[in-house]
Design a protein that fits this description.
The chain is of the alpha+beta class and about 375 residues long. The protein has helices spanning about 5-20, 25-30, 80-90, 95-105, 115-120, 140-155, 160-165, 170-175, 185-195, 200-205, 280-285, 305-310, 320-340, 350-360, 360-375, and strands at about 35-40, 40-45, 60-65, 70-75, 80, 180, 220-230, 230-240, 250, 270-275, 290-295, 315, 345. The chain has 3 domains: about 5-120, DNA Primase, Chain A; about 135-250, DNA primase DNAg catalytic core, N-terminal domain (Alpha-Beta Complex), CATH 3.90.980.10; about 260-375, Dna Topoisomerase Vi A Subunit, Chain: A, domain 2 (3-Layer(aba) Sandwich). The strands form 3 sheets. Strands 1-2-3-4-5 form a 5-stranded antiparallel beta sheet. Strand 10, helix 11 (about 280-285) and strand 11 (about 290-295) form a beta-alpha-beta unit.
């Protein structure tokens, strides 16, 4: 079999595997503007394909079948599958599109005996001795965390900035929060830099490296640090690739604080502080001039963190789902038991990030809702 036949078979294998793993909804939405209409299993939007040279205005011309992963731009009469869409969006060849999408999904693109790097870099969650690894001191963990952030920060940040910009979070807010992107092509370089700076057992104890001596942050490249007294002490990371599960990965240890809690140290008492779910909602509010701290999951508030909120007027704006409502009710009780200022709650029509991306007057609406809720709470 000649090399061209082998390559065709390799590409076919990858295409088949991509289509079994990809989440079409996540894949297409990462490229579309906020003005997306969802009807059943079909999306309609303005077409973002650069070569189509649309003005960005007018009626939606792009239709996407989420069940089959097919798209069609009616104004240019061009369509195809998700791989063709990747080709057009990035201006690359078919083979390169296949390889890039496969790597993004953690698929071994070589088809040989080396195995997927995603497998070698997987966390030790199923290892029998994972829980027996000794923990680092806070100072050691912070040193590892800071070195990793700095190593990634020295790499190209454009992909991460673009990802957050599509969600309405500007570069100034990203920099202020210390958010860092870890490009996949820098994986081996960053891994070597960390091994040159720390002993392997320290890196393994931090959760940054696994028992196979590989850096675990391979598929999760958007890094959100938790700062305590201006020092990063913990990291959670999100994948930016469509179809990757789990979407989140973190260092070893427990979440040490509310996300973005460091901003509270210099804020005047009685300032309104918003309590929201997750990093994106927190940074969305920060980008619009609101003081906000974030929870890792709706139920993530710990009783020992209430003291840091005691001198502020706290407004919870959790997701409008069952988990968010249950958490809000429980937090109201926690604040009442503490004996300080009560917690005020507002419920938006969607999560905070979607609310701000789809409503031009979102900032004013949220401020008015918060003031009304605080007034009721007295």
């Amino acid at each position: 079999m000649d090399q061209s036949d082998e390559n065709r078979k390799r590409l076919q294998r990858l295409c088949d595997e991509i289509k079994t793993r990809i989440d079409y909804r996540s894949f297409f939405l990462r490229y579309l503007s906020a003005d997306v209409r969802l009807s059943g299993a079909r999306l309609q939007s303005l077409c973002p394909i650069p070569s189509h040279e649309h003005s960005g205005k007018g009626n939606a011309s792009l239709s996407i079948d989420l069940q089959r992963g097919l798209f069609h731009c009616f104004s240019r009469d061009e369509g195809g599958d998700a791989i063709r869409f990747h080709e057009l969006m990035h201006g690359v060849s078919f083979s390169r599109a296949v390889d890039e999408m496969a790597r993004g999904l953690g698929i071994n693109t070589r088809g040989g005996g080396e195995g997927s790097l995603a497998l070698y870099s997987a966390p030790d969650t199923d290892a029998p001795d994972a829980e027996t690894i000794a923990s680092l001191t806070v100072e050691q963990q912070s040193a590892v965390c800071e070195a990793f952030l700095n190593a990634c920060r020295d790499e190209d940040q454009l992909e991460g900035l673009n990802y957050l910009a599509r969600r309405g979070i500007d570069a100034t807010t990203v920099k202020r929060a210390g958010v860092v992107y870890f490009p996949r092509r820098a994986y081996r370089r960053v891994m070597r830099r960390m091994l040159d700076s720390f002993a392997l057992d320290e890196l393994q104890q931090s959760g940054l490296f696994n028992a196979r001596e590989h850096l675990t942050f391979y598929r999760h490249r958007l890094l959100f640090p938790f700062y305590v007294e201006k020092r990063p002490v913990y990291l959670q990371a999100r994948t930016t690739a469509a179809g990757v599960e789990p979407r989140w990965h973190n260092m070893r240890g427990n979440v040490p604080s509310l996300y973005n809690a460091d901003i509270l140290e210099t804020m005047p008492s009685s300032t309104i502080v918003y309590l929201v779910e997750g990093f994106t909602d927190t940074l969305t509010l920060a980008a619009h001039g609101f003081a906000a701290v974030g929870l890792v999951g709706a139920g993530g508030l710990k009783a020992e963190w209430l003291a840091t909120l005691g001198r502020f007027r706290v407004v919870a704006a959790l997701d409008p789902d069952a988990a968010g409502r249950r958490a809000a009710a429980r937090y109201e009780e926690m604040f009442a038991t503490r004996g300080g200022p009560p917690l005020a709650c507002v419920e938006l029509s969607s999560d905070v990030n979607d609310f701000f991306r789809h409503r031009p007057t979102a900032g004013l609406e949220l401020a008015l809702l918060a003031e009304a809720a605080l007034e009721v709470r007295g």
